[in-house]
Amino acid sequence: MLHLTNTLTRKKEAFTPRDPKRVTMYVCGITPQEAPHLGHGRGYVVTDVLFRLLRQMYGDGSVVYVRNYTDVDDKIIEKAAQLGVPPERVANENIATFQRCMTNLNILTPTHEPRITTSMPEITDFVQTLLNKGIAYTTAEGDVYYDLLKLPACGCGYHYGQLSGKKPEDLMMGSRVEPNPLKRNPGDFALWKAAKPGEPSWLPSWANGVAGRPGWHIECSAMALQHIGPQMDLHGGGEDLQFPHHENELAQNVGAFADLYKDANSGFARLWFHWAFITVNGTKMSKSLGNFTYLHEAIADYGPAALRYWLLQTHYRKPVDYSAEALKAAAKPAKRITKVLEFLPVGVVTPEFQASFLGALNDDLNTAKALALLNKALTNQDYANVHWGASLLGFSA
Length: 397
Known about the structure:
The chain has helices at residues 38-58, 74-83, 87-104, 120-132, 168-171, 218-227, 242-257, 295-302, 304-312, 324-343, 351-362, 367-379, 383-392; strands at 3-6, 11-14, 23-27, 63-67, 136-138, 144-146, 189-194, 212-214, 232-238, 269-275, 278-280, 283-284, 320-321. The chain has 397 residues and is α/β, with parallel strands linked by helices. It has 2 domains: 10-275, HUPs (Rossmann fold); 278-392, Orthogonal Bundle (Isoleucyl-tRNA Synthetase, Domain 1), CATH 1.10.730. The strands form 4 sheets. The protein has a 4-stranded parallel β-sheet, with helices on both faces. A hairpin with a 5-residue loop joins strand 5 and strand 6.
């Protein structure tokens, strides 16, 4: 049985889907104001292995995986203004680069890849639901905010701050992100923003003639509802998304569907998982610090197999430190794997290897242990086992 560390409970738990014939997973995608960076590569390689493992366990057609694109955002608008081009051009070009990177890294395409611009009816309907329930309110300027004091109680026992583990005083820091004197409470967060001149905008029926665009968090609640429903099995993302994004997303769903969430196993997501950062000399990789590496550049410099191998050497919940030396070292065993895949016959995997390999991945996605087993099979020239294990880890010839 698969066990994963549940961010909501801070415990490693056995994963049991609501319906083994329809296992559902939502993972937050990129905001394409720039080309993707190495951190994106880490997250989606990890998620790809989990997707492959779930397909192995429940069948290829039984897993629904949704990964979105935030193709309307303040950062995209700012970048477009700097370049003197439409925001949609910035988003589309960076999404195209991202998709090429995913293909190069042999990352399976999710079942659904919605965008804000293709999901606007669902987003505005979700805002309408929260307005109807009295959990959201409109300001005189046309913004719509979630009223945190109206968060309903539900059987799942959720309280604001539970997912991120934040204390009340820490939660107030979120209010600095969206300062507005018209908010009822400092911690209230935006569901909808009145658009400024020249910005992408939409005019919902409830907007009183003021065009606007979605806040950051509402999109994922709406897209998950659109493609999965109000309840899912797995929800994932980078650890930086725990607050405010995932915390607010969870609050939105509790606001809309509290009556459905009767206990811990019937909440919005049955299990939340988050991966750690990429670092450089122990410091988080960041464009502002000048230690930033684009994903397509790393693929070109070291090759996709080496990059995938390097990322999987470290457990997904631990930081992985980037260096040219580390990637060059990963290139050697990665090349051995790809040579087997390219030149040697497939054969039949042994039950003992299969059990050990699945045991490693089922233990909180222990890809480091799985790689060790793969290298042992290489040494023993058990090439059928190498083929099977390498495929599950996403390597290709």
